[in-house]
Amino acid sequence: MKSKLSKLSQNQAFWPVMIFLAIILFNTIMTGGEFLKITIVDGHFYGRIIDIFRNGGKLMILAAGMTMVLATGGTDISVGSVMAISGAIACSVIKGNLLPGLNGSVAMAIILAVCAGILCGLWNGFLVSKIKIQPIVATMILLVAGRGIAQLITNGKIITITSDAYYFINGGYILGLPFPLYIVIFLVGLLLIFVTKTAFGLFLESIGCNPLASKFAGIKVDIYLLAIYTISGAFASVAGLIESAGIKGADCNNAGLNIELDAILAVAIGGTNLMGGRFSIFSSVIGALIVQSITTTVLALGVPAAYIRVLKAVLIIVICLSQSSKFKLSLGKMLAGKRKEAAAV
Amino acid sequence: MKRKLLSAILCASMVAASLAGCGSTAAKEEATVENEATPAGDAADDTADDSASDGKLVVGFAQIGQESGWRDAETMSIQTYAEEHADTVELKFADAQQKQENQIKAIKSFIEQDVDVIGLAPVVETGWDQVFAEAQDAGIPIILLDRTADVDESLYATFIGSDFIEEGKLAAQNMAELIGGKGKIVELEGTVGASAATDRKTGFDEEIAANYPDIEIVASQTGDFTRAQGKEVMESFLKSNPDIVGVYAHNDDMALGAIEAIKEAGLKPGEDIKTVSVDGVKGIFEAMVAGEANCTVECNPLLGPLFFETAAKLKAGESVEKWVKSVDGVFTSDIAADVIDDRAY
Questions:
Q1: C-alpha–C-alpha distance, residues A113 and A272, integer Å
Q2: What CA–CA distance (Å, rounded) separates A230 from A65?
Q3: Closest by alpha carbon to B185, among B277, B95, B118?
């Protein structure tokens, strides 16, 4: 039994899941059970847990894409701007401001938005793999320029749309569960199958550990880098669709603002080394849930506005410390030392 | 290897910087080009312009960015006025993309270009002393537009804008009327540290506390003036306080987000939960016509004419009052349908 438990705790996803459960437990106690309450409203589930999954959907998708980028030792800080571009394109098409010939077709709007995301990802991948620019710098170009492109598309205004089909992406429910959750399951599931059932994941880890050695071992490093940045861009565009569907419009200045940092944090909390190497997409998705639940916690506790960031900072420090094996080790030693002292007295 | 890396970083940052620069210069060029194009019509006008161009009123305006429809309307008002009066005024416009450092940079560049008057809508209240002092040393008066800054009164010439405290009080009176003077309400605050947020809260809270003892503000949290966060915070409010009868938002966009959250909770916005917000953007009028919102306190953004008139006075050396108040109004859902077509923003 004990060996089984210790084996389980060796799994990368073990601690993230434990932290997530701890946050839920903490909230449940603090709110007197209100946090866990799930009721049925208008034929769908309704409650804070549902909120975490729906609002965390976009972050889970971003984190899944980001994990692979980070696994190769790279990073993609342009995802927030790509989200803004994708939302801008989709809303402009539906409103008829862009390509009025499409008659505001929602399907075409979504396809075009995702295509734009793929294009952005290809651009990032091209800069990183072919031009050999440092990933953080290469993606910084789109981080800055992307939001400008999005503003250009919307003419710098917040576009408000009325399309029930488009709202469904964020506000829809299937079998009582929010639609973003299904998008997450589909995309992450696809990615997990692809990474675990093919050698793709192994190659990524190899590139992250030593790109040069990987190249000499016959791995086409450039192609793989191009592929993962493209996937990250495509995922970001889907996240952008979810975000813009949630507010029924495209808000280019605020859509996905600073979310790249949340995505990287999610991956870090998930236990993937940001310097590259071993990675776990599932852990990152749990990490994203943790990041989202921190926000939900702060809101549920009713912390005064001025203290929100401080509280978030404290929570993040605690979580990061709990992830550090060195800290846990020294804490354990300290506790053991205290116990000895107490015994001696 | 190290040198290569450094040069790559430098190259990319230069590309990024030039791309970032593109956005703002393009906007500036557009403004000046249009300025030149307008008076080219009449030969007689031309000569008059030539003599006037020496004495043109040159104004630099550092706008916050495009955070909401309201701010777009303000920007439009200023740019339209500059275009219509191209023979007497020249506008240098800078978009700070919601960053204080960009606004400070813009002001510094205005000082270098030796403009006659600098206009500024400060993104936050604090941290302006030094750059304002620099402008003062250069002999350039500063006009604060629609938001105040926490500096000594001697450092700026005048403030043009609404009385936010008064807006908060008006909102409180209308909220009391809507909910019959009693019940639990929640408040969605703007960006922490912005004068619009602090004053609208002060005015509202004081009025409620002073005159409506049966109204209780059960929760108040920041929604950062954005739709997405307005929605997320409202979702949380609805769970911890299911019995609220009204929501007061510091701007219309947060109210629009809150309306979505109310709908998801299976309640009817505008009926089960009354809304009062500030600004008066078109979106909230559409919502009022649809019966989903109740009341907006207009904060007039069409400050262009007032701004340039004040700037002209300052250039001529005339004295202006320290606070030039703009005129605000209240719109309720009863009259929304009649006035919606006249809304300029």
A1: 30
A2: 9
A3: B277
> CA-CA distances (angstroms) from residue B133 to B84, B98, B129?
32, 22, 6
Q: Is B239–A47 a contact, with Cβ atoms under 8 angstroms apart?
A: yes
Q: Which domains does chain B have, with CATH numbers?
A: 8-160+302-326 (3.40.50.2300), 164-299 (3.40.50.2300)
**Cβ contact A247–B231 (<8 Å):** yes
Residue A158 to residue B20, Cβ atoms within 8 A = no
Per-residue pLDDT of chain B (345 residues; tens, 9 = 90+): 455 555 555 555 555 544 444 434 333 333 333 333 333 333 334 433 333 346 789 999 999 887 767 788 889 899 999 999 988 999 999 988 888 999 999 999 999 999 999 999 998 888 999 999 999 999 999 999 988 888 888 999 999 988 889 999 999 999 999 999 999 999 999 998 888 899 999 999 999 999 999 999 999 999 999 999 999 999 999 998 999 999 999 999 999 999 999 999 999 999 999 999 998 888 899 999 999 999 999 888 888 999 999 999 999 988 888 888 887 789 998 888 888 877 766
Dihedral pair phi/psi, residue B86, rounded to 5°:
-60, -20
- Tell me which amino acid residue B148 is: T
Q: Measure CB to CB from residue B228 to each of A37, A127, A254 and give the nearest one.
A: A254
Phi, psi torsion values for A47, nearest 5 degrees: 170, 175
Length of chain B: 345
Cα B248 to Cα A168: distance, rounded to the nearest angstrom: 27
Task: Tell whether B205 is within 8 A of chain A (Cβ).
Answer: no
Task: Tell if the CB–CB gap between B228 and A247 is shorter than 8 Å.
Answer: yes
Chain-centroid distance, C-alpha A294: 14
Q: Are B186 and B238 a contacting pair, CB within 8 Å?
A: no
- Give the residue carrying structure tokens 């620099």: B134
Give the phi and the psi of residue A199 in degrees, each rounded to 5. -80, 0
DSSP secondary structure string for all residues of B164-179: HHHHHHHHHHHHHHHT
Whether the CB of B254 is below 8 Å from some CB of chain A: the reply is no
Work out the angle between the directed axes of helices A281-301 and A259-269 (0-180°, nearest 10). Answer: 120
Dihedral Cα A288, A292, A297, A302, nearest 10 deg: 160
Name the packing angle between helices A259-269 and A57-71 (round to 10°).
70
Query: 């200045």: which residue's tokens?
Result: A253
**B198 with B167: CB under 8 angstroms?**
no
Burial B29-61 (b: 16+ CB within 10 A, else e): eebeeebeeebeeeeeeeeebeeeeeebbbbbb
**Which residue has tokens 């040159």?**
B58
Which ipTM did the prediction report?
0.87
Distance separating alpha carbons of residues A18 and A252, to the nearest angstrom: 36
Q: Does B325 touch chain A (CB under 8 A)?
A: no
CB A92 within 8 Å of CB A98: yes
Residues on chain A touching B16 (C-beta within 8 angstroms): 137, 140-141, 144-145
In chain A, the largest separation of any two C-alpha atoms, in whole Å, equals 85
With a threshold of 0.90, does the pTM exceed it? no
CB A232 within 8 A of CB A284: no
CA distance linking residue B58 with residue B312, whole number of Å: 9
For tokens 């709990």, name the residue.
A322
The residue among B272, B186, B269 whose CA lies nearest residue B234 is: B186
Q: How far apart are CA A194 and CA A188, in angstroms?
A: 10
The strand pairing partners of B120, in sequence order, are B62, B144
Supply B153's token pair.
């009164």
